[in-house]
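User: Before I run my own analysis I want an independent prediction to cross-check against. Here's the chain; please return only the structure tokens and, at the end, one sentence I can use as a sanity check.
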Amino acid sequence: MSLPLYQVDAFTDRPFAGNPAGVCILGAGDPRAADARWMQDVAREMNLSETAFLRPRSDGFDLRWFTPAMEVDLCGHATLASAHVLYERGVLAAGEEARVHTASGLLTAVRRGEWLELDFPAEPAEAAEAPAALREALGARPVFVGRNRLDYLVEVESEEAVRSLRPDLARLRGLRERGVMVTSRAPAGRDYDFVSRFFAPGAGIDEDPVTGSAHCCLGPFWGERLGKSELTGWQASARGGLVRVRLAGSRVKLGGRAVTVIAGELLG
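Assistant: Structure tokens:
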């Protein structure tokens, strides 16, 4: 039985930018929704940083995320892509809340004009000692090193240091954490508050183009340092993407736009 399958560029308003995600919509009673091996095979076939799998339930949708190598507990851009598909295809009305049940609990999204806003848990980082492998892999002098339940956060001295980084991915692959976000404050005059990049070779993603879940950490980090509750982050990958961040206590509201670039059927 074929299934609807989409490729969506998330955290961008134009095709071929932002972060591409696969979105597969299963039927309510489809047994493949419980088959992690099948979902992993589909994600490997899609070969995107994440592929999302949605299954309807009485109070929303079940949502799971897979990289080409593994299932992950939290993914912002594939959630944004999933919500975009639900609204764009008329599964949800424009004013209706998208409710998805995930390994990280209930997440919601609302559509506000061209923007979607996700409600995610905050994932603040605490100061941590940087392993030697991390320092050697990055080849940059850290201003601050922190860690949350998912990733390392490394602040460096400038936006130029973030953009010019060429990490040793083989060394990063040996870390136990999902990935490493590298960030700095933006210079005066930019239309964003901070810049970042995200590397997760151990999860099958050398560099993620735009990482929504990283902003659950970057938002609280820069909000505290800049004294702001609403911020904008630019993820400076080759594709690039803009993420709006609104701090709300233990939650982080992530705003972004999305564009469908491929719509088709999964036959396997």
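Sanity check: The longest helix spans residues 76-88.
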